[in-house]
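Structure first, sequence second, as always.
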């Protein structure tokens, strides 16, 4: 069994994928627009850096079955379920209950379709660092997510999906997620305190996510879903400028890949990285450094975004996948 794949393409050619029967999702970036008419299109309100226009294609292992339930758009290839939900914000200080409702709805739909295990969730909402009624909106979001996940997960700390929580231009709360019939394995970063164990100074309810989730598809295909990773060591933010923060983030990614590598018997090369940057800058120096660490073959996408801590300027997420054609026996030593 070969699992679904994710890759970047030129946005100008993105719509050609709409005719593909295996399409699970087409993620486009840029101006906030009307909700896309095609249920597989997810439009994320983040500008791309570097003058290119890129889209992300999720292609299932087989023909996709699509539908919409309780406002949740979904597509499945029989093994994997992609879900997408956008909710209007009825008030800027109601992000906590809105987030809880959104999560409860995602879980209800995924469970009803037979995919109760969330592997990876993306969260986008505007003004992530703004204070409303004395509470930063990111922390209000964390409280709502925590509330829902405590109720939904039998073993809260062990079953948390990988995640990104990103300040986008909105409007509204936008979630998309990947769920499966069987669970993945939690991977934490030995250089960092687990986010679900952050001390109270970062919010009353900790950010509820795993640093990465390792999923085995069939017998010998592995995916590593890597959460948004930033310049955090222990639980503290490190460095003031973008490039030193990038270097620390790359060290965190390497530590996470090494940790996941100990759980598989085959290499887990990066399939793609997504780099969220707060300042509107030329991404070339960033690209050079990422390339020096991970090689020139890893596709990179740079997006202008707000990060969940005010002092963080960069955050990187990604997917690593055991290479097609690598057979289990070849790598048992
Ligand atoms: C951090 O490590 C940086 O709240 O879902 C990264 C990835 C971060 C996901 C989330 C937050 C989240 O705490 C911020």
């Amino acid at each position: 069994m070969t699992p679904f794949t994710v890759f970047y393409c030129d946005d100008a050619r993105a719509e050609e994928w709409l005719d593909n029967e295996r399409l699970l999702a087409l993620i486009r970036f840029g101006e906030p627009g009307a909700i896309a008419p095609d249920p597989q299109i997810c439009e994320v309100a983040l500008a791309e850096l570097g003058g290119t226009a890129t889209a992300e294609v999720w292609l299932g292992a087989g023909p996709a079955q699509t539908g919409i339930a309780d406002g949740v758009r979904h597509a499945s290839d029989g093994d994997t379920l992609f879900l997408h939900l956008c909710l209007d914000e009825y008030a800027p200080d109601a992000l906590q209950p809105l987030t809880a409702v959104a999560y409860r709805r995602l879980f209800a739909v995924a469970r009803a379709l037979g995919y109760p295990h969330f592997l990876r969730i993306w969260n986008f909402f505007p003004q992530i660092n703004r204070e409303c009624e004395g509470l930063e909106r990111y922390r209000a979001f964390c409280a709502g997510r925590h509330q829902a996940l405590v109720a939904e997960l039998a073993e809260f700390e062990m079953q948390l999906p990988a995640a990104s929580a990103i300040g986008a231009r909105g409007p509204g709360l936008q979630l998309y997620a990947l769920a499966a019939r069987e669970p993945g394995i939690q991977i934490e970063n030995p250089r960092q305190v687990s986010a679900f164990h952050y001390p109270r100074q970062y919010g009353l309810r900790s950010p509820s996510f795993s640093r990465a989730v390792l999923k085995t598809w069939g017998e010998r295909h592995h995916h590593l879903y890597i959460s948004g990773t930033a310049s955090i060591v222990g639980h503290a933010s490190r460095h003031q400028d973008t490039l030193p923060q990038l270097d620390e983030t790359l060290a965190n990614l390497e530590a996470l890949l090494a940790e996941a590598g100990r759980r598989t018997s085959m290499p887990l090369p990066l399939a793609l990285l997504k780099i969220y940057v707060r300042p509107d800058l030329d991404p070339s120096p960033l690209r050079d450094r990422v390339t020096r660490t991970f090689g020139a073959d890893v596709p990179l996408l740079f997006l202008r975004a707000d990060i969940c801590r005010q002092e963080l300027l960069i955050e990187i997420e990604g997917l690593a996948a055991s290479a097609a054609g690598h057979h289990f026996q070849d790598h048992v030593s």
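Margin note: The chain has one domain: 5-329.
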